[in-house]
């Protein structure tokens, strides 16, 4: 670890000397942590991000066109072929599941990691347990346990691990087939480019976005563990979708058969103007176009069958070749800027609670990885069987616990009535 003098030299070079203003008032443990933070922050990167913070990327001249996809409900003969290919890969231990669970349940009024949230089912199962149920169904069906990798954050890691411990890891065995790893973080900065201090006098850090999962998997040695176990494909999804299918043999078989390194699931947009990103081709390459980038004319455009030309909604369900994860994770994805309201410690040691946005947060997004692949596979699936997100409080009335609960219960009833397995 660097000394205080060495930290001063680094901060002086980058105009961030204020970070040591309250150093002498910190206890020894916090002093060491602050010095460690200073040592590990890439201040050159922060400076370059700040220079771009106020600039909006112009995508108006990008050539955007519809992208091809396969509809799972219309595969016919290929359905069984893909299912057999995928089932074989699962049985051979070629699949791992990755759950991005670095967030807190604050927006839901929940004091704790989002994955520990109970959406209101009679069973009172948490989101983590609902996801685990999906993996247990795969184990029962294919006779193999799918290794589970859970990305936490600095903020919620200890609580998450403790929650799993209290629940006997839901039948998994920690560090054998269940692995926890932390998401990366970046400092928050003010509009003058100054790194903020938090209420403890330490550097205010924020998670670097779900696109950071690739880098985190590599840096934490998770891809190495996957390769040692013979895993070829990793399903990567969020903790807040209680209908996520992490071991869908048709999805895996399609990706394998098509020879792609990234495959994504889509669902049809609920309506032409739903606020979701959609898959597209941008400048001839696979990509995601945000709803804010699509004109009304594009959003409402349909093909000869009446299907939306830009209707494949991104639901953050991705299947990625482990080698591709290592390739993507070796170099950070582009960072996007968010202007947020953030409390901080000022130069006098007082805590400031702003009334309006005052700081920049930098995040990378998973969909940027798509643009690093010349070809991807997209499988359209049904919304009611695959997508029940828990993002908002019930007061929002959409993508909230009550809607997720209703969708989950409807799906379970469908399974019961039709006597079908998880797919």
List keywords for this structure.
423 residues; alpha/beta; Spore Coat Polysaccharide Biosynthesis Protein SpsA, Chain A; three-stranded antiparallel beta sheet; 18 strands
Topology:
Elements: H1 4-14, H2 28-40, H3 43-53, E1 64-65, E2 70-71, H4 77-91, E3 95-100, H5 127-142, E4 148-152, H6 157-166, E5 178-182, E6 185-187, E7 189-190, E8 205-207, H7 213-219, H8 222-228, E9 233-238, H9 249-258, E10 262-268, E11 278-282, E12 285-289, H10 296-300, E13 312-321, H11 322-329, E14 336-340, E15 344-345, E16 351-352, E17 359-363, H12 367-370, E18 377-380, H13 383-386, H14 401-418
Parallel strand pairs: 2-18, 3-4, 3-9, 4-5, 10-18
Antiparallel strand pairs: 1-11, 6-8, 7-17, 9-13, 10-13, 11-12, 14-17, 15-16
